[in-house]
Amino acid sequence: MKNNIDIGFETIHLGHGSGGELTRNLLDAIIFKTFSNPFLDQKHDGSIVKFKGNIAISTDSFVITPIFFKGGDIGSLAVHGTVNDVAMCGAIPKYLSLAFIIEEGLKVADFIKIVKSIKKAADESGVLIITGDTKVVERGKGDKIFINTTGFGEMHPKANISVSNISENDVIIVNGFIAQHGIAIMSEREGLEFESSINSDSTNLNFLVKDLLDEFGTNIKMFRDPTRGGLGTVLHEIANDISKGIFIKETTIPVKKQVAAACEMLGLDPLYVANEGVFLMVVSENIATRVLQFMQQHTKGENAAIIGTITNNHPNKVVMESLIGGKRIVSPLVGEQLPRIC
Amino acid sequence: MKYLAEYRNLEATKKVLDEIHKITKHVWNIMEICGGQTHGLVKNGILELLPEKIRMIHGPGCPVCVTPLNLIDKAIELLEKGVIVCSFGDMIRVPGSKKSLLEAKALGGDLRILYSPLEAVTIAKENPTKEVVFFAVGFETTAPANALSVLHAEKEGITNYSILASHVLVPPAMEAILDDELCTIDAFLGAGHVCAIMGTEEYEPLVEKYKIPIVITGFEPLDLVQGIYMAVKQLEENRFELENQYVRVVKKEGNIPAKKVINQVFEIGTREWRGIGEIPNSGYVIKEAYKKYDAEAKFNIAHIKVPENSACIAGEILRGIKKPVECNQFGKLCNPSNPLGAPMVSSEGACAAYYYFSIT
Question: What is the pTM of this model?
Fold first, then answer.
């Protein structure tokens, strides 16, 4: 993206967070100019917005290293992460707050690149940035840039998302390939090159969620996006929340070949690798096939798959049938997945 | 993924499992040596698919688990002295006597998690004013890369690099297990990766001396069931031989250049095994000519000795005397968030395998 903004500095320093003239220059030249909208243009301490009914609110902080990676950057991630969390509540995301904590020394060009990426992701997700904050901390007190976003969404009129709706024989569907984001980040960090590059799956899921709610409404019992901790950890959480068992089949879980190969090499289990463009949903058995076909028509669900069912056997446990027909439990991730010795 | 998909094939695996059911007439205790094999068995649910008469006993082949507690304390001491300590990820969560390396890192220690010891040599080169130590643990499998890191440092004239080494060997451990009066093992699945380096010849004397079948075995589901089939077939036919299931990787002579590198830097000596104790001639020690790369000598930390946690039965687990679920603390006081011993933390530890994957 061409950088045509000039604030007279190449790097951000403490003065840019002072609240004075330099801060104003930085905000005017970069933030207000990029995100200009009727709410933000009023330049108040906050924005006043109207909602029709119940609203869903979700907040998230983004501290990823590296800040630029294949398939995205910390900016697009900060939008997608929060937009998706709001959508998972069964809501239609409308507005975002946006707060930066910048470590002094960040290149202005990098900051602009991130801001433009936020703008693009917000436009694609149909949300407006309506309030924000920028702080600068001393070198060594941060890691280039941290971003916090809070999302506000209007509840979809047909949404009735609640774990208490889930019953035996309900079906679990995922929208596509798992484990791409974590592997993309890991390979970037480790400097690993694979035959074909693995991109982060970071994307907004709100339009697919809205379309699903329009079509199937209250028959959808749950949405959940397995970000950190991966699919395995989220399935385990659900089993605990509903005090029922979950049965999944390893053969049905969509994993791209090169991601599976990278996981082998790094000693990681794709079930515990982070995703940023994946969600799972729980629906009644009688509509599962229709939901699956509906998702497969959508670009963000074309690799959707039914991966398992809810069962009254083994309550609170996730049991997976392995590739060779044996059974194992799927436990939650403890700590970080670590590279193995051999 | 060539050589993986074929060995995770449902039909092929089922066929071998059916054969095992057909030929099994007696009760047999088979020990898989390597923790990677233990995880393969539990993670794929193979234990439940075997005949009841086949009892798999989990062996000591988890490099993290057999690393003595005092070595972790030594690495922490180095971190606290301001040394950059580099380690494979597996080691960092294992509890020392007071804390783990991960906790020492949180308190300000400069701990780096690496995939290869050669990266540690690069770190030493880039930080000439700092001392850099690689935490070199493992069986014969990791020894060549660790030895190579020393040779690289020597070649480049890097003097601020050393290794905290605790290399152990598989055959002496098997002998110690077989000599134990509580031993009930009828056959072994040999550790495929170790043999990829060392070859198979050193197992022949064991087969002869103890009249016990040893089948060198791989790690995928089909490998494991094939290895078990070959062991059961020998036992039922009253044979004891050295066989190689993992022929696509393991050659009789092993990896000759890798062995040469090991022998250049290391020599065989007495080693302490966590939970088992000292075993003569059971590991590698750094040769006199490379002593300046031995962190224990360089930093005067050899004196650090600490007792094991008495609540952990790692010794019995590693010798296959008890199964993880037979430990009173399993899943209660001891779990991956609060491990009492290494077998609960390591990705190859038997306790972790049961905790994470076993449906029983």
Answer: 0.87
